[in-house]
Amino acid sequence: MNSIADVQNSNDLRNMPINRVGIKDLQLPVRIQSQDGEQATVAQCTMTVFLPADKKGTHMSRFVALMEENNEAFNYTTLKKITHQMVQRLESDSGDICLTFPFFRRKTAPITGIQSLLNYQVSFSGCLKKGVYQSTLRIIVPVTSLCPCSKEISDYGAHNQRSHVTVTLQCNGEITVEEVIDWVENQASCQLYGLLKRPDEKFVTEKAYDNPKFVEDMVRDIAVILRNDKRIDGFVVESENFESIHNHSAYAMIVSE
Questions:
Q1: What are phi and psi of 202, to 5 degrees?
Q2: What is the residue extent of each domain of the chain?
Q3: Residues 45, 66 contacting (CB under 8 angstroms)
Q4: Which residue in 21, 160, 170, 226 has the most C-beta neighbors within 10 A?
């Protein structure tokens, strides 16, 4: 019986390495390790490795096989292990894995205590480059912000808006999604809830009014927390306020030194 040719494993004569090659936007069910246990969700996964100049192609099926074989909930340790396995299996010295997924948290309304779910967009990324591993956690947290200037100059009322705060962390240890959400929501004018009754609406409206924040205040207050955490090697904090009195957003970003 004739053997099947392994074309992608043949030599390439163009002397051109490829920085990243692999699969993009593989959708698969995964479990995420959280403070409350494991949470099931659906992730979009991108997996790539460095391809040397003398190799014609990589083994695409091995990326999918690796994810199919994983039975563990994803956290810092799991992603680090799978990233190392990927690079070894694909016979490379560098590679990246990124999982992007919706994360849900059960919120309790402040007055009535009624519960509901709120969704957050989360990304776990692992990068291994010539033996050096780096983990990145990215979370988009929706919150309420109320303008201090509007409150100061108005006889009554103040304009407020929904804001997206994006926190991107380079981590050297385990940081849970819930920790980052708490850091952001505690610095906002008010946090969001999936379901509110009238007493709750009154509470969140007045809470935001009593706690006005510029977009600059938001990113600074969060950055102060992040720079004091030893598990964080670097960070980017962004806030986009979807203005209620303009047809544009207010935006601010801090990048750690």
A1: -60, -45
A2: 9-255
A3: no
A4: 160
Structure tokens at 67: 């994810």
What's the token pair of residue 121? 């967009």
Domain 9-255 CATH class label: alpha beta
The residue whose two tokens read 């590679």 is 95
Q: How far, in Å, CA of 8 to CA of 4, rounded?
A: 12
- pLDDT, tens digit only, all 257 positions of the chain: 556 656 566 676 688 999 999 999 999 999 999 988 999 999 999 999 999 988 888 999 999 999 999 999 999 999 999 999 999 999 999 999 999 999 999 999 999 999 999 999 999 999 999 899 999 999 999 999 999 999 999 999 899 999 999 999 999 999 999 999 999 999 999 999 999 999 999 999 999 999 999 999 999 999 999 999 999 999 999 999 999 999 999 999 999 98
